[in-house]
Structure formats: structure tokens, C-alpha cells
Write a structure and sequence with these properties.
Blueprint (H helix, E strand, L loop, with lengths): L7 E3 L3 E2 L6 E7 L2 E7 L3 E7 L11 E9 L2 E8 L3 E6 L5 E6 L8 H7 L1 E3 L3 E7 L2 E6 L6
Antiparallel strand pairs: 1-3, 2-3, 3-4, 4-5, 6-7, 7-8, 8-9, 10-11, 11-12
């Protein structure tokens, strides 16, 4: 999902199959929060930043997707890093640098990046090429 100009993005409601409890995930440019429904009680909060860079990096894209059968929050940061968090705990599962061939295309990647279910990501790596990446080894 695209973060609107207000800086707040919400996910579709997600539920865990074992408990039947529903959660809503809200993601701003710097943090994510998970709320239980219908009580709307905040159950977890995570500041999201580029741990390798000297400065903070805003979240450009955030999506709730299923990877290996579990709901996860996936984030693409302005510095070119991908972060994946478990839901509902927001425990970091994975982070990696997406090294674009040319830094001049980084803004285009941020505008076109999308996460898909089953652990894939897609983005425009040039004005005429789409790049597909795999985020999970469990992809069939």
C-alpha cells in the first residue's frame, strides 16, 4: 500500500487462524503499530529505521502479506532496505539491502515497489524493466 501524504497507512484487517483474533496494522513513516479488534487496544509497537545508516530512513512502502503461511509486515525504506516483521508481535524477521544498479533509480524503485503474497517483491529497475525478487526461501 502507498503511504498517503498524511504519513499513515493502514492494512487490511488480518487474523491469526489459530485464535481467530483480528488485528489492524497501522504504519507511519517511522513506526508500525498493531491493534487488536474490536477492542482497539494497542498490542505492539515497533520503530522502523535503517539500522545500518547514520540517519533515519522513512518507510516508503508497507504491506501486510502472507509468507510461508504467516502474516508479516513488509516495509521498503527510502535508503533501499527491506524489513520484514512478524505479526502481531512486530518482531524483526529479516532485513536486507536492495542494491539498485544505479542510485539515480532509487526514487523510481521506491515509487514502483510492491510486495506480494508468498514472499515476492516487484519494482521497476529502469524505465523499461520490471525486476522480481524473492523474499522467502519457502517460495514454491
Amino acid at each position: 500500500s502507498v503511504l498517503p501524504s498524511s504519513g499513515l497507512s493502514s492494512s487490511p484487517v488480518t487474523s491469526t487462524p489459530s485464535s481467530g483474533v483480528q488485528y489492524a496494522v497501522y504504519c507511519s513513516s517511522k513506526e508500525a503499530r498493531v491493534f487488536s479488534l474490536p477492542s482497539q487496544i494497542s498490542i505492539s509497537k515497533q520503530k522502523i529505521f535503517d539500522s545500518l545508516g547514520a540517519s533515519a530512513s522513512n518507510i516508503i512502502r508497507a504491506s501486510v502479506v502472507k509468507i510461508a503461511g504467516s502474516a508479516c509486515l513488509t516495509c521498503y525504506l527510502a535508503a533501499g532496505r527491506i524489513h520484514i516483521y512478524s505479526l502481531p508481535s512486530l518482531r524483526e524477521l529479516f532485513n536486507a539491502n536492495l542494491d539498485p544498479v544505479m542510485d539515480s533509480f532509487r526514487s523510481m524503485i521506491g515509487l514502483t515497489f510492491t510486495f506480494t503474497n508468498r514472499g515476492h517483491g516487484l519494482y521497476m529497475c529502469s524505465p523499461t524493466e520490471i525486476q522480481k525478487i524473492t523474499l522467502s526461501a519457502d517460495v514454491k
